[in-house]
Write a structure and sequence with these properties.
mainly alpha; 2 domains; three-stranded mixed beta sheet; 17 helices; 68% helix; globular
């Protein structure tokens, strides 16, 4: 019992405390990791959203980047001067600080986060309703199609019957900073991006990630979560027991889309600019790798998978070039000293993924049931086939 209590309460409490203290550590040691950590946290949120679809419900979604893009563009539409034909403001500190009316729509960042989540959930329902009757590879192909359609729509949405919805390849720029409603002076702390004061952004995404984790845990342990597991394991048997597979899968698709949209809205405000090229198919695959390598269905495994993969991208791969050059200088090897390692980053990244899948196919922190399936010799190929179908 003591070990269970330690795992369930003490360890998460320690990790959350360390997360809240990280800015002090980063500032004290001069690490300069705040920007990559914020981006990693965004991907943790995206991976947790996709884990609802893949890990809980067993639906292979290859187009999750579409919800990420939709959320970002909602922030661009409702918190910038893009629609300069109108002038509307609601609880926006950016509008208040200017001292007068500004063109465009300027709604509070906090409200837009909720709107982005609701809008992407609606889009998830509209996309999922006609397609979730499909299974396995067929569903994957359909979601892949939507993942390609949405970014292309944003790329060519600058002239929809004479109406500029997305500003095409130029994108939407100068997105409002969050601030706190009724406290216009708070905006200055969010706008000190150039001086590397990223603490407000860090704590905001940290709270959003914690909310996402809490909701994931509650969903996993709920009646709906058990229905997802039933559909994932055997859809026919679940239907025979009275579970509506289509409705159950639709809930997974919509709820996963909520977190993808909120993460996209935050990221759009954080980088201040939104471009359609920022939402390529590669992002969907990267998020999928985070879920699979971390451990499908295991919340903490997915978090660790997202941190590990983005840490490799942000820290390990860029550092390898310096390490190889240092070794070359020490050995007097001009081959190593002049090696251009960054052009092999994708090769190295691929090797790491292959080794991970060979050595630990169930993930870093696996779901117990999936781990038993992959290591049960009596099931042989059926276990692997079931995993591939999921």
């Amino acid at each position: 019992m003591r070990g269970v209590a330690l795992k369930r309460f003490a360890l998460p409490a320690v990790l959350i405390t360390l997360a809240f203290l990280f800015p002090l550590l980063d500032d004290g040691l001069g690490l300069g990791l705040m920007f990559p950590i914020i981006v990693i946290a965004v991907y943790v949120m995206l991976a947790l959203g996709l884990n609802i679809v893949i890990g809980f419900a067993g639906l292979l979604d290859l187009g999750f980047v579409a919800f990420y893009a939709l959320g970002a563009y909602v922030m661009g539409w409702l918190a910038s001067s893009h629609f300069n034909q109108v002038s509307f403001s609601f609880l926006s500190t950016a509008q208040s600080l200017s001292g007068g009316a500004r063109p465009g729509i300027h709604i509070s960042f906090w409200i837009v986060l909720l709107v982005a989540g609701a809008f992407t959930a609606l889009c998830g329902v509209l996309i999922g309703a006609p397609t979730l009757r499909l299974r396995g590879d067929y569903l994957a192909i359909v979601t892949l199609g939507f993942g390609e359609i949405i970014p292309r729509f944003f790329q060519n949405g600058d002239n929809l019957g004479g109406f500029n919805l997305t500003n095409g390849t130029v994108g939407i720029k100068s997105i409002d900073s969050p601030g706190i409603p009724f406290l216009p002076e708070s905006l200055s702390s969010w706008q000190r991006f150039g001086t590397l004061d990223l603490n407000p952004w860090y704590y905001t995404i940290l709270v959003l990630v914690l909310i996402t984790i809490f909701v994931n845990i509650r969903l996993r342990d709920s009646r709906l979560g058990r229905a997802w597991v039933s559909v994932r394991e055997d859809e026919t048997a679940a239907a025979a027991m009275g579970i509506n597979p289509v409705t159950t899968k639709l809930w997974a698709y919509a709820l996963g889309a909520v977190f993808g949209g909120i993460a996209g809205a935050f990221y759009g405000a954080f980088i201040k600019s939104i471009f359609p090229t920022s939402f390529s198919f590669n992002i969907s695959i990267l998020i999928l790798c985070m879920v699979i390598l971390g451990g499908m269905g295991n919340i903490y495994g997915v978090i660790l998978g997202a941190i590990a993969l983005q840490g490799i991208n942000f820290y390990l791969l860029p550092q390898i070039n310096g390490w190889v050059h240092a070794i070359g200088d020490a050995l007097g090897s001009p081959l190593l000293s002049g090696a251009d390692i960054p052009k092999y980053n994708f090769f190295i990244f691929g090797i790491i993924l292959v080794l991970m899948m060979l050595l630990r196919p169930e993930g870093i922190i696996p779901n117990r049931q999936r781990q038993e399936e992959l290591h049960d010799d009596s099931t042989g190929g059926d276990a692997l086939g079931g995993t591939a179908r999921a």
